[in-house]
Fold these 4 entries.
Entry 1:
Amino acid sequence: MPERNIEFGKYGARGIKGHEAVARQLDALAGYIATPVTARRGLLARLHYLTRSDHARQAARAAGLTVTDRTLRAWLAGTRAPSRKNLERIEQAYRTVRRENVARYLTARLNKEGRGTRVEIHPINQSQVGRPRQRVVEFRTMNVRRWDRIVAAWAAGDDQELDDAWVDQVVDLGSQWGQYEYVTNVGFAA
């Protein structure tokens, strides 16, 4: 695409891709367990979430938590502790299952029966860019009405699809949409 940045940050601009900021905000809305998985309380909370029903156990196995039921019972009882690698698997499986569980709810909340959600786009940080190379990029707001592709890509963990879905929405900014490929933050609420 002609508006895509090829050498972002060459002159000192700082920011992140817009779709990464959207994913960060969706993660915040998902309401993950705050206690880290390395703490006993956080581990138990995640294990209870992943094993509370047959459906949850199947989703956890599909997400990569492939340990025996005996091992899960030992972890829950506290007789054995998971290795560092298994802690990472538990955290990854928990986040994947949580995303899948809240995706439908978030899509409905963000679409608001076709009214959409107001999104604030904070431009890149140009404080380190020399004065002659700075450009005027203002704070923008827009109303996003179609969140289905964005939330589905976020729930699946597909960065490329999330980027494409987000760019399809940002194009509504008109001829300046390429200035918002990289941003400081993207804010919205559900």
Entry 2:
Amino acid sequence: MNIGEVSERAGLPAKTIRYYEDIGLVRPLRSDNGYRAFRDSDIHKIAFLGRARTFGFSIEDCRTLLDLYEDETRESAQVKAVAQEHLAAVDEKIAQLKSMRETLAHLVDACQGDHRPDCPILKDLAKDP
């Protein structure tokens, strides 16, 4: 199976699949002439990685999750720990974005948006740290 077929079946761009190969997340077989020869198991791994990335897991987290997925002796506690750590990072980012949104909304509301040069948005951005 060639990379175009894999891309279609796994739902990821060929460029992403090549990247995953370059960093060692997937290792398709190579024919004597150097062409990739993907197997069904490769498609499964690529789809797994794509799904993990949609949840925002980092490449390193994906590597860890893939290793755990392939390790039949794993404990679910190990997987849960990776997911909990990521969830905490997502929660932190959401809190930062909420704060950012509230501040920006306040500044937008305070700005008259007319012909006058006075602008609270620019004043706030110019504040000393």
Entry 3:
Amino acid sequence: MKQVKIMILCLFALVSMAGMAQEADDTGYIVKVGEMAPDFTVKLTDGKSVTLSELRGKVVMLQFTASWCGVCRKEMPFIEKDIWLKNKSNPDFMLIGIDRDEPLDKVIAFGKSTGVTYPLGLDPGADIFAKYALRKAGITRNVLIDRDGRIVFLTRLYNPEEFSGLVAKIDQLLAK
């Protein structure tokens, strides 16, 4: 009888854990537009740390990236030109590139090779990435967060029309 109770408890625990597993959409995101952005602290390549929740009141764009990602390399000059250079002096805007699983020296070299000047942060172990998407999902993604900390726009891969929508949404949020 005792063994049956233990087996039932184990089965219940497994079922409960399965229910807690986060569901991903067809792009691998586990977050959705309208939800609060999961909080994290990221160390930037200049040694400073940034905590997302401390940026409330600003429009924040997260760009998940890696040096080995060809699509990221294609997209980064557009982010630099059409988003960062246009908005970097706006105190109500923050852009952070979050580099997945690479050491500091590689991330610094990656930033230089792509010509980006926006802040790049380190995500060893992809723990920040895993708050937003499945670890096994593709890397190229952008998350736009409004002043209240809610996700308002998600992109996956680089698509010029979708990217234009992202730029327009940033403009709209900053105009408020």
Entry 4:
Amino acid sequence: MPVAIITGASKGLGRALAEALAARGWDLVLDARGAEALKEAAESIAGHGTRVEAPAGDVTDAGHRAALVAAARRLGGVDLLVSSASALGAEPLVRLAELPLEGLRRALEVNVVAALGLVRETLPLLRESPAGAVIAVSSDAAAEAYETWGGYGASKAALDQLAAVLGVEEPGVRVWAVDPGDMATDLYGAAVPDDRDPRPAPAVVVPAFLRLLDERPASGRYAAPALLEEL
């Protein structure tokens, strides 16, 4: 069975994608900081009959990243790495003039540095896989100038660039930066708590990610809404 590592998998898009992959028979290594929420998600996802490892921890911790990769090795390797864990930098979001630099550092550490750290740990296994792939969960804030989204958007723009260069440097591995579009997630709720406009559940955009895995287009940046329109 193929094996995926998914960070930020206790809720939101990470959990929805893990559920979909488990339903397809994938074995999974799941990550999140909250041990109880991660345990509940792992037990639910394991109900599909696949093997699930779920060590709780912070992706900015090198030891935790190593533990994730070690768990994947026990399952047989790594065919897919999904960096879905994200930090906003401030909750709720604030203008750049008010953004704490420590918050910006946290967003960069989680969204960029930790993502690259996991890539470095998993690359030998991804190169060995006949269909190795990396998915970096991006945002439209990486490409558009939205008020108060500057710190988070800057971190996602950096992630996009890392993904683009990785795709050039590793031609045998597919590397996709994916903007999932608007979703109803805890992260968005923390970012803009006063916004009550309806948004789709993360499960609605999962078919776009599955399409990438099925069709394996060239490495690059993709928008989930556009992929969904073509289904």
